[in-house]
Amino acid sequence: MTCRARRARWCSYAVAIDAGESPADVAVLAAYLSTVGLAGCDVLIVDGSPPEQFEANGRVLRWVGRHVPAQPRHRRAGGQVDLVRAAVDLAACEKVIVAGSDTRCTADDITMLCALLEKHEVVEPDEYVSPTSWWSGIDAGRILLHRGIEQPGQVLSTFALRCSAYRPLLEYEERSGDPEARRFLSQGTDLYGARGLFIRREPPQLDRWWRRRALEAAADFVLPLKTAFFAMLLPLVLLAALVGGVEAAAGCAGIIGFASVLLAAKGRAGAGKFFPLHTCLFAPLWVAERSVSVYWALIDRWRGARTPVAAPLTDRAGPKGVVVPGNR
After folding, report:
1. Which among 261, 268, 98 is positioned nearest to 195, based on CA atoms?
2. In angstroms, rounded to a whole number, what is the distance separating the alpha carbons of residues 147 and 160?
3. Which of 56, 239, 267, 283 has the most CB atoms lying inside 10 A of its own CB?
4. Per residue in 86-144, pLDDT tens?
């Protein structure tokens, strides 16, 4: 069905659901997606749940959008769902907003993203987390650090693209066998960082946040220098402790922490409305977390390489659309 046939909706909004979502979380997401549909979007919901949970989710989500199961061709080699690939395959509109399940776009946000897609192939807005908790504060510190070193688009969960611009990259990905679709966004593509357009994200539950530590660290393996930097921090502090004792280790950690606070303060420039001043103090905590999580991710990668690959998943019966979960 074309976008014009769907009452001239001007963009598709694609979101994925992870397996194990609670009924309460699905209900909250459905309430939000109903507002997205009213804003003029074709809502595409990609569900990676097992069949029983998929059916239960469908009884709530089918009223707010196209609720479709994840298909094998839309999964990465490790079994994770590639929401970008699925969204490009199944979107009813040329313009697509790819969002995390915790993203909360307003009607004005959607209007602005669609307007920017008139001039650019890929648009990545800024993000902020609200309300804040100690773990979402760590995420906020991470966002400020990336802003401070001017690395937009490294860990964002929301961006917009034009399907016609992205399909050639997916074809290249299939030929190359590289499963990291996001890395091609900046290769030969007109990617626009919409600094100043801030999209709100709901903080995740603590258990979900904790489970994503290794996954987010693993996502940065496509950036070897960044991964190497965080991998060297812990050995560096331990080496300082062996050579100079506790005081030397504390001094080394203090320098790293002070530098991260300064970078976060730089990243907060122009974003003070969305990031309270104390958020900068969470930046060293994110650096410490990532310096540990990178080893967690490396161990998971090593264990995965030694684990026999499971048989390919079979298609499940479902609507014509088929898609992908996975939280970026």
Report:
1. 268
2. 19
3. 283
4. 888 888 899 999 998 899 999 999 999 999 999 988 898 989 999 888 999 999 999 99
SS3 for 199? Answer: strand
Candidates 57, 42, 131, 135; CA nearest to 93 is 42
Q: What is the pLDDT of residue 215?
A: 83
In this structure, the dihedral spanned by the alpha carbons of residues 271, 108, 121 and 328, taken in order and rounded to 10 degrees, is: 70
CA 292 – CA 214 distance, rounded (Å): 9
The answer to whether residues 98 and 14 touch, using CB atoms and an 8 Å cutoff, is yes
218 touches 121 (CB < 8 A)? no
- Specify the pLDDT at position 97: 94
Radius of gyration of the chain from Cα atoms?
20
Dist CA 270 CA 171 (whole Å): 38
